[in-house]
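Example record for the data management plan.
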Amino acid sequence: MAAGPAAHRAADRAQSVVALGGGHGLHASLRALRRLVDEVVVDDLTAVVTVADNGGSSGRLRGEFGVLPPGDLRMALAALCGLDEWGGTWERVLQHRFAGEGEMNGHVVGNLLIVALWEQLGDHVQALDLVGRLLGSAGRVLPMALTPLDITAQVRGLDPGDEDALTLVRGQVEVATTGGVITRVDLEPAAPLACPEALQAVTDADWVVLGPGSWFSSVIPHLLVPDLRDALVATDARVVVVLNLEEQPGETGGFGPADHLAVLVEHAPELAVHTVLADTRIGAEEHQHLLEVVEAAGARLVVADVASDDGSPRHDPAKLAAAYESIVLGAGAPGDADLVARP
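Corresponding structural encoding:
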């Protein structure tokens, strides 16, 4: 795929980065990227967050008030909190979840704060910016769309009478925990209004980061919002796809690294991917298969140690930051030979 003008920029200045996703995957990615803000490798950081959550505190607030689900937005804001005492204190407050036996059980302070500001200000973006100011945020957090969304999935293998039949599963929580094999995801409504500030951030970015995270319910949905998809296809930014460390039971059961990339490309074949980042734990056979899919996409493969040392399937923010820095400062052209980044 042809590289745009951004592919020829030298990394001799701080870069602007847009990270897309949701939940714990985006949280880890933002934790990593905020380190590059501190090191002045990145000077403009924006998170664009999915708004389809229908479970937990977010789902309850969405159902009661008809608002965007605030949970993933809250987690992104928490990831970008200032590293001083003020930022650390407010991060803990933002993430505090009420216990007890009453109606407040399970609600999170940050979710309530965000919804309260939405009601006070009547503007999603202004309210999120205000929370960011309170937290001393190292970047901006934006919703991918301005209306709550539902994710639907076509799932094979749920019908005991016909293992090839497709069943429609609706809802982010339901999709994330389904059995069977997801063949495709879509959004309801199918053409939601994208956040204009998110579109502008993607247009202006030097780098766009997709993943890690719940692949079908947090990563791919960004490619299903028509205006956001168009912006991602048209941007001169270099697109980096960060692969998950392993399959997610229910959502991506049986998936290897190459399967994650292949299904993303299938949902948005016109998206020009510059770099694919995978962990060093990938086996030799998986590595070769992934390299073939990466090369078919016209991208380059970076393999780095980015996994947490505790054995969990989560990215370590410090290791991920080192990998991001290596990619940004040593960016080559798509199609380059397999590159191993060693933080």
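Summary line stored alongside the record: Residues 94 and 109 are 5 Å apart (CA to CA).
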